[in-house]
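Postdoc handover notes: sequence design on the structure in folder B. Input tokens:
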């Protein structure tokens, strides 16, 4: 047994000191403003209000940096949220379309997240955050160490329209605007609602994979409630085509 005064984690006197090189690492720290976590630093966000199933929602849309796009529009999000049972969204009424910081992306490229106590203005409330993406930069993943769980995620991305190139050492994932929309609008958004539902029900599952599986199942269920041609309509909007083109398409393609 170790003597109690020994800290078993601190094996080396240099750990945590400048000599161990922590200075170098801290150059990559994500800057915090005040005490708010990095995802609460909304810079010049515009606020929109919409009513969905008789309830008012706020959308904070952050100004974009060069090369980035918000993948879903406020109205497209409303069109999907409409299909979520009202009680599942009780207490949640803020959606943030967010511009990630470059430094964050290095560590956590991500489509969206649920924040249980998001500080916006002078209120703290739950919020769903959907990240803007720079689609010009493919995601590169080293092949060694891809877990079976992540492998499943890659398969899902491929089904949703992502192009995955396989070379000797790494995978390159390219995502078009439309595939990004498929992912963020019909999966991420609903997946985060799924996390909210399990949080409200008090399901505190400590297993990350179980949590994720629950949220994925929830998203798939709500997606199954959407009309089948829904994704096509979003595709038309994404390409800037007007309502007439959408109507024409539906007349042709409705069974
Ligand atoms: Zn999740």
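Designed sequence:
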């Amino acid at each position: 047994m170790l003597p109690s005064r020994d800290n078993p984690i601190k094996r080396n006197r240099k750990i945590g000191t400048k000599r161990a090189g922590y200075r170098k690492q801290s150059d990559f720290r994500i800057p915090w403003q005040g005490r708010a976590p990095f995802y609460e630093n909304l810079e010049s966000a515009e606020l929109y209000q919409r009513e969905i199933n008789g309830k008012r929602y706020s959308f904070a849309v952050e100004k974009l940096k060069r090369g980035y796009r918000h993948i879903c529009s406020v109205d497209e999000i409303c069109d999907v949220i409409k299909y979520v049972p009202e009680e599942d969204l009780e207490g949640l009424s803020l959606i943030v379309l967010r511009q990630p910081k470059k430094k964050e992306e290095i560590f956590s490229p991500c489509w969206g997240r649920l924040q249980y106590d998001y500080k916006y203005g002078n209120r703290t409330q739950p919020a769903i955050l959907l990240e803007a993406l720079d689609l010009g930069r493919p995601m590169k993943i080293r092949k060694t160490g891809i877990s079976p769980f992540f492998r499943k995620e890659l398969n899902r991305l491929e089904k949703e329209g992502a192009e995955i190139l396989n070379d000797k050492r790494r995978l390159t994932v390219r995502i078009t605007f439309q595939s990004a929309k498929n992912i963020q609008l019909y999966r991420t958004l609903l997946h985060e609602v799924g996390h909210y539902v399990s949080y409200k029900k008090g399901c505190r599952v400590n297993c990350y994979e179980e949590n994720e599986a629950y949220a994925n199942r929830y998203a798939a269920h709500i997606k199954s409630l959407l009309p089948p041609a829904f994704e096509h309509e979003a595709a038309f909007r994404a390409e800037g085509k007007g309502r007439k083109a959408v109507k024409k398409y539906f007349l042709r393609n409705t069974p």
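Context for whoever picks this up: Residues 191, 195, 212, 215 surround zinc ion (CB under 6 Å). Don't rerun without checking with the PI first.
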